[in-house]
Known about the structure:
6 strands, two-stranded antiparallel ribbon, globular, about 40% strand, alpha+beta
Amino acid sequence: MKPENLFVCLFLLILGSGCTKEEPNNSILYEVILENYLSYSEEEKIPEQYLVFKNETDWNNFIPEIERVNPSQAEHFKVLDFDFDKNNLIIIIGKYYNYCCSRISVHGIYNKNGIVVVQYKESSPGRFTALSQAYVLLKIAKED
């Protein structure tokens, strides 16, 4: 290899190593409260999403969305022992699949310009035929 080519390759390698993915510096500690699946008919779906609940009223207003597709899971949510005075509640609802059972992995939670951002990834479902949608409930401390 010519010295000029080696220099160019070395320069590009050094330049490329300086470019890194932006890492959030406002990480928020979290605790997984519950992981489970919603199973229901294909007619009524809940979109993939994550939501942050700062108070019990907003959480209780969301529960009918779950109740519409899975009344038994909604009953668990209605009796959830959670202290909204000290914590915020996050629900991550995965994709709707005709096969069971995907899994949601949380890669981090951080604050970006006053908004809670959740980084997560969902695995592909298995081969077992069952209409399902993974969800995870998380707890984070309220900011002072």
